[in-house]
Design brief:
- Helices cover 60% and strands 4% of the residues.
- It is mostly helical.
- The protein has one domain.
- The strands form 2 sheets. The chain has a 3-stranded antiparallel sheet with strand order 3-4-5.
- Helix 1 runs parallel beside helix 8, helix 2 packs across helix 3 and helix 2 crosses helix 6.
- The protein is flat.
- The two termini are 22 Å apart.
């Protein structure tokens, strides 16, 4: 029996990445003379409205994003189509159940995007791991790939070899091999069937990632963020570190060749810098202020590109409606 892993649709992944990670490609390159003062309110970072850590942040661009419940419904619909197909072919398919993996993927993507642009925010993790975050990796002298899973480094190649050895020990039968083949065929068929009546080509033509990227660059160039980064730099100076920006602190301190050696002098020094960095950001309410300013600019670019935004919103809604119809039909 196949226990299904989560199905990530190409469009779900595309939207989640372009709306956040592509925005970070422009990070550090913004020229604050490009944006008029009319887009900036006379609010200092310290007095800007904050978002409570217990509340879920909602980006204005979430309406055209396939994460959380919207992504869950699509994955559930795809699972149903695979289940029906497998049953028709004489096999049983058991989808995964439990907490949303879309939420987990979204959080990892968001953390990676913030890390790329601003470094680390969690003081506790900085004290323990420095600038290392989930997804960091390196290749050792044997050519094996190691990845940090949030708590430790895992030898990904060794794990793969162990899994392959386990498969051989299980003495897979011809029927189980056939079951795997049928699963992948049904998986492909499910995706084709789900999207066949939807405007996929129109979605491909829309440069949705540009909306998030434009807002991100403008937010970083915003005079309030420039002022906040200056205050962060002053705070770091008080701890004995001379960095103009959080990006400079991470780039000059974090070294993929050495950062996995927890006992090295380099890593111990990195942990001290990262801890000071995250502490300064916490004291300055850096993260909440960043999101307040970013969401303000996201609202602006949405209004400036309202026809495009509404087209994409209608497309995303059609995906969710299609998923809900399938769930209702086979539920």
């Amino acid at each position: 029996m196949i226990k299904a892993k989560k199905i990530l649709t190409i469009f779900s992944f595309f939207l989640a990445c372009t709306l956040f990670l592509s925005a970070c490609q422009g990070a550090g390159t913004a020229d604050n003379t490009l944006y008029k003062e009319e887009f900036e309110q006379s609010v200092s970072p310290s007095s800007a409205p904050t978002i409570s850590g217990t509340e879920e942040r909602r980006s204005p661009l979430d309406e055209i994003s396939l994460v959380s419940k919207k992504g869950d419904s699509i994955n559930k619909a795809l699972d149903i189509l695979v289940t029906v197909c497998m049953k028709e072919r004489g096999f049983t398919y058991t989808p995964q159940t439990g907490s949303s993996e879309n939420d987990a993927d979204s959080q990892v993507s968001e953390t990676a995007g913030l890390w790329t642009q601003w470094g680390i925010f969690d003081v506790g993790k900085a004290k323990k791991f420095g600038y290392t975050i989930e997804g960091n990796g390196y290749v050792d002298e044997n050519g094996d790939n190691w990845f940090f899973d949030g708590e430790r480094y895992i030898n990904n190649d060794e794990l793969y070899r162990e899994q392959e050895a386990q498969k051989k020990n299980e003495n897979l039968t011809a029927d189980s091999e056939k079951e795997n083949t049928v699963y992948y065929e049904c998986d492909e068929k499910a995706v084709d069937e789900f999207y066949k009546s939807l405007d996929v080509e129109g979605a491909k033509k829309r440069d949705i990632g540009a909306l998030g990227s434009s807002a991100n660059v403008a937010a970083e160039a915003d005079s309030r963020m420039v002022s906040l980064v200056g205050k962060w730099s002053d705070c770091m100076s008080e701890s004995g570190y001379k960095f103009a920006t959080p990006l400079e602190a991470r780039e000059k301190t974090f070294n993929l060749e050495e950062e996995h050696d927890w006992n090295s002098k380099h890593k111990k020094d990195e942990i001290l810098v990262a801890t000071a960095d995250a502490t300064c950001k916490t004291n300055l309410n850096f993260l909440d202020t960043w999101y307040d300013i970013l969401y303000e600019h996201e609202n602006r670019v949405i209004q400036e590109n309202l026809p495009l935004f509404n087209e994409e919103k209608a497309y995303v809604n059609s995906l969710v409606k299609r998923a809900e119809d399938i769930i209702k039909e086979y539920g």
